[in-house]
Amino acid sequence: MQAFFSMRKLTFSISFLLWSTLAFTQGSEVPLNSDAYHILERLRIKTGVQPNFHTSLKYYTRGDVARYALRMDTVRSVLSSKDRHDIFWLYKDNNEWLDVLDVPTTNLNDKNQRAFEKEYIDSNKVFYTYKLRKDYQQVEQSDKYIYREKPILNFFYKTPANLIEVNERYFKLRLNPILNFRIAKEQGEEELNFFNQRGIRLRGVIDDRIWFSANILETQARFANYINERIGRDLAVPGAGFYKNFNSTVFNSTNAFDYLNGQGHVGFNATKHFSMQLGHGQHFIGNGYRSLILSDFANNYFYLKLNWRVWKFHYQNLFTELAVEGNRNAGGDGLLGKKYMATHHLSINLTKNLNVGVFETVIFNRNNNFELQYLNPIILYRTVEQMIGSPDNVLAGIDFRWDFMKRFSLYGQLVLDEFKFDELFIERRGWWANKYGIQAGLKYIDAFGIDHLDAQAEFNLVRPFMYTHRDSSATVAHYNQPLAHPQGANFKEYIFRLRYQPIAKPLVLNASVIYTDYGEDIGGNYGSNILSPSGTRVNDFGNEIGQGANAKQMFASVNASYQFFHNMYFEVFYQYRNKESAVDSQSSKTGIIGGGVRMNIDNRPNDF
Fold first, then answer.
1. DSSP readout, 267-295?
2. What is the pLDDT of residue 368?
3. Residue 604: inside a domain, yes or no?
4. What are the pLDDT digits (tens) for 37-80?
5. Same domain, 128 and 224
6. Which residues contact 525 (CB under 8 A, 6 or more apart)?
7. DSSP letter at 335?
8. Residue 103 — very low, low, confident or very high, per pLDDT cuts 50/70/90?
9. Which one of 107, 133, 196, 266 counts the least CB within 10 Å of its CB?
């Protein structure tokens, strides 16, 4: 029977069809720190509609993001026009999962006209989509897929998000350049700080079952003094691997660094509910600004990841190869020592808005050999460690997230390294091995009724000697960089953040204040620097947070970014850092002002 659809019914039908098609897709990663994470979080809290993926396990995949965005298209009442712009941004950024061919050419019912007609989506007639004509009922083209009216040289940027696209029925490819250039002036410094990063990002899908992603980045940078101090202490550039010193003739700058870094992985959907990934990259576990379990602060690492998603459960295994130290420690071109990490995390949606996860991590060194017993994906690692003699560093804990009132999200983590019940709850003598970390946070979207004004408050506490081990090669670090919180251990931290989007997508304002009370390892090992073995500690008892050379630090920043084209931004920023230490020579105060332009990349914060 011939049927005629209104545009609203047609839109709903397309969304439902694509949602069903994408029900078990995954795809390449959405880069950590992307705006997509904040958009998805806002939509989840505001609508109460839960995604099929569990939000504590990051990164998210583009297939999952596209599927959730399509679900949001059926939510009519609570979303603002800015929310709709956010959803459209997700469509453009993940368009390979909208099942679209390059040019719709379908002719139906033996008529000499196309089934689709062009429809512009902006008043300047720069971007358009295809709408199904009202007198046709078959559809292959998604009206979420956006074209550019005049591609560059009729080949580049046929769509807003991608320099080059390939769209075949069984193969899709996306290729994009990466550019990140910033320049800044630090108070009291004659030389300029700069960050010059160029690269390329490639991703693709084969048969909607196999996906791959790769990027490579070349960087020259001169950092602020407090970052240089960290590099000097740990012999590692945060987030980077091998590096060399560099002097810029362009900026007449010294004490700069040059390094090359890359990520890449291939993934495979083995079944509807099980997938595998192999590659180099980073991960993040948690719902907060920081993670006390696993963060993206350290250098990329080699990993094998298994994902099991069944019913209300998401179970993830992560097996990684890590570097015991950095190249500056080893010297020359020698092979770096290896250690390994095995992590499993099980999360369950207990209710519509409450998610709880449990995890366990073990880090070990076997003279560059993997302990095969840790490959068991379901056993408790603590039992394995005890069976083989308890030589390794095991952490365990829980995390949770609770959305309520369609405005708030409460979250937290509890991480246990070692503890003794009597010492922790009865005698309480400050035993060094009572090692734990606690996180508690609250997010508030559309604060005070203002659309897209979002606030966040977070508290982190980590005891001295947390993440350390008697064998320094088994500490929770990679390439001389913490795998969890960038501060290491022995601190309390208070974070307050605001994000405001006054107009739909182009302009975003961010402000943050981070106050940290911590101790430094000056004159001995007081449990702050996790690279130091716990056997060199100063005291067995009487250990408390902030011990050693106590420091109180205030870090404040404001940032304004303007998106002038999809994933291309102008931005300006100001940072203020004031550290007051019990050791006068360690105190410092600075202000940094700067700006820059970036394309297809998001800046990682160095707010430690």
1. EEE-SSSEEEEEEEE--EESSSSS-SSB-
2. 67
3. no
4. 999 999 999 999 999 899 999 999 999 999 999 998 877 678 99
5. no
6. 532, 534, 536, 537, 538
7. P
8. very low
9. 107
Split at pLDDT 50, 70, 90, the class of 608 is very high
The predicted model gives 527-553 an average pLDDT of 95
**Residue 61 has what DSSP assignment?**
B
Domain count, the chain: 2
Q: How confident is the model at residue 321 (pLDDT cuts 50, 70, 90)?
A: very high
Write down the pLDDT at residue 108. 44
User: What is the side-by-side order of every strand in the sheet holding 147-148?
Assistant: 116-120, 127-132, 147-148
User: Which residues contact residue 597 at a Cβ distance below 8 angstroms, ignoring those fewer than 6 apart?
Assistant: 179, 181, 568, 569, 570, 571
Which residues 6+ apart lie within 8 Å of 294 measured at CB? 283, 284, 285, 286, 318, 343, 361, 483, 484
Q: What is the pLDDT of residues 429-439, one digit of tens each?
A: 999 999 999 99
CB atoms within 10 A of CB 193: 22
Reading the block at residue 597, the tokens are 């332009």
One domain for residues 131 and 175: no
Mean pLDDT for all residues in the chain:
88
301 domain-assigned: yes
The pLDDT score that the predictor gives to residue 16 is 39
The DSSP secondary-structure symbol of 209 reads T
Do residues 310 and 404 both lie within one domain?
yes
Alpha-carbon distance of 490 to 461, in angstroms, equals 8
Do 206 and 136 lie in a common domain?
A: no
CA distance 223 to 236: 13
Bridge partners (DSSP) of residue 511 are: 498, 558
Single out the residue in 119, 137, 167 at which a domain terminates.
167
Average pLDDT (191-198) is 95
Whether residue 608 lies inside any domain: the answer is no
Contact criterion met (CB below 8 Å) for 430 and 438: no
Q: Which residue has the tokens 């320099």?
A: 163
pLDDT value at residue 244? 92
Q: Are residues 330 and 293 in the same domain?
A: yes
Lookup: tokens for 364: 């070990």
Give the Cα separation of 224 and 192 in Å (integer).
Answer: 9
Q: How far is CA 265 from CA 212, 304, 341, in A?
A: 6, 9, 18
CATH number (domain holding residue 465)? 2.40.160.10
Residue 322: inside a domain: yes
CB 511 within 8 A of CB 400: no
Question: Does residue 61 sit in the same domain as residue 204?
Answer: no
Q: Are residues 148 and 185 in the same domain?
A: no
pLDDT at 10: 37
Burial 433-447 (b: 16+ CB within 10 A, else e): bbbbbbbebebbbbb
3-state secondary structure of 42: helix
Q: Are residues 155 and 269 in the same domain?
A: no
Q: Are 212 and 203 in contact (CB under 8 A)?
A: yes
Residue 130 belongs to domain spanning: 1-167
Which residue, of 132, 167, 202, is where some domain finishes? 167
- What average pLDDT does the segment 335-358 reach? 94
Mean pLDDT of 219-242: 95
Q: Can you tell me the mean pLDDT for 538-549? A: 95
* Orientation angle between helical segments 35-47 and 62-72, nearest 10 degrees: 40
How far apart CA 362 and CA 520 sit, in angstroms, is: 26
Query: Would you say the pTM of this structure is higher than 0.85?
Result: yes
